Amino acid sequence: MKKSRLQNASYRILLTNFKEWLDILGYSEGMRKNYPNQLCEFFYWLEQNNINHIDYIEDHHIRKYYGDLKQRPNKTRGGALSNIYLNNHLQSLHKFREYLKKHNKKPFNLPIKRENSTIVEKLNVLSQEEIKDLFMATGYSNPLPRFRARQKALLVCLYSCGMRRNEVLNLEISDILFDKERIYVRKGKNYKERFIPINLYNLQILEDYVYDARMNFKKSSESNYVFITERSIKMGSSAIENDLKQVIKATEDSSLIEKNITPHALRHSIATHFLQAGMKIEDIQQFLGHSSLESTQIYTHILKHK
């Protein structure tokens, strides 16, 4: 939906306060962006339907809004909006209702059930052919060689090594143990440390980036982090996502673009591919750094679904 400026002053104030609340509570960058954007769509629809205060929202308004949402065309791949998008939109409204309750305001009812979505849909697991397409696209994803090398190295860490986004962001050059064919994860989830095995092919990709392409970033020697920006400061989440989006766009594959691939989807994909290849679930657990085997067993459900 094309973003439109809200005319209603009370809605603008609510939107601003909602954003600040999410920020204070420490929600992720994605949630701080998506929740307010989707709430803004809701407010805009209310304006267009002459509903000028949240106290005037009734159940039939919510049903009509959701009905309109389900009929909105998907501009990326055609057809209707995905169940994942619709559920995310509902989650935004649920979160706004929570905000209203916390601030002693009467929340409107939300008489809508979540759409059914499969585990595969939720995790956005890529096929091995799609992964190959991503790696191939790093050959022409950016005009500058140093950025293409960085993007390829990111794919190695996110997919081949199954690293979490924050693990990649905090990876230091000394953590890549080239002689031992291992990567040391010092800041895993819950500060849990682990070693990740890496084969010589992927190790060579990291070596080419770290000791060649990375050197072409200004003042690169002043940073110990593997993944740095043009100004040689540690990359942030948005920078990783932008690199990934650039690679995906370079494939010119509409189905890949539609999948809305996240860094975590690459981690899900390598785990699924390992399981398909016959790797023991306990070994996958150790590779991913899961504290509980239950977290890893979700991939067995994916295979059953397939």
What this model shows, in words?
With 306 residues, this protein is mainly alpha-helical. Strand 2 and strand 3 form a beta hairpin. It has a three-stranded antiparallel sheet with strand order 1-2-3.
Q: Please trace the helix and strand order, writing H or E for each element.
A: HHHHHHHHEEEHHHHHHH
Work out the helix count.
15
Radius of gyration from CA coordinates: 22 Å
- Structural class by helix and strand composition: mainly alpha
Distance between the termini: 33 Å
Mean pLDDT: 87
Low-confidence stretches: none
Main sheet specs = 3 strands, antiparallel
Which term fits the overall shape? Answer: elongated
Which strands sit side by side, in order, in the main sheet?
A: 1-2-3
- Strand residue percentage: under 5%
How many beta-strand segments? Answer: 3
Q: Helical content, roughly? A: 55-70%
Give a topology summary.
Blueprint: H1 9-24, H2 29-48, H3 59-71, H4 83-102, H5 119-123, H6 128-137, H7 145-160, H8 165-169, E1 176-177, E2 182-185, E3 194-197, H9 200-211, H10 237-251, H11 254-258, H12 263-276, H13 281-288, H14 293-296, H15 298-305
Helix pairs in contact: 1-2, 2-4, 6-10, 7-9, 7-10, 7-12, 12-15
Short description, anyone?
The chain contains 15 helices and three strands. The chain has 306 residues and is mainly alpha-helical.
Identify the notable features of this structure and list them briefly.
306 residues; mainly alpha; three-stranded antiparallel beta sheet; 3 strands
